[in-house]
Specification:
Layout (H helix, E strand, L loop, with lengths): L1 E4 L4 H10 L5 E3 L17 H16 L3 E2 L5 E3 L5 E3 L2 H4 L1
Parallel strand pairs: 1-2, 1-3
Antiparallel strand pairs: 4-5
């Protein structure tokens, strides 16, 4: 069985694959020829992960799972959150 993990990060894919029991094979976005940037326009980490999966379902008719990350600093009241990559 194959399952799409909405990532192009090969290291992340390997880490998660090690946690998944065979016979499940994880596929990356590249593996399904999804080469475009999937929008991440939500205000929460959970929202961005859901947006990725909804994009795959709509454009590729594929189910899968996704994650998103962000740095939430207590002293900054949870900021930068989903904007971590753009914060610096």
């Amino acid at each position: 069985m194959q399952l799409v993990f909405a990532t192009n990060n090969r290291n992340k894919l390997k880490e998660v694959q090690a946690l998944v029991l065979e016979p499940i094979q994880l596929l990356s976005l590249e593996d399904i020829d999804c080469l475009e940037d999937i929008p991440e326009t939500q205000l929460t980490i959970e929202g961005n992960a859901i947006q990725k999966i909804e994009y795959l379902k709509k454009h590729y008719n594929i189910d899968g799972f996704a994650d998103d990350t962000g740095l939430e600093v207590k002293a900054l009241h949870g900021e930068p959150g989903v904007f971590s990559a753009r914060y610096a």
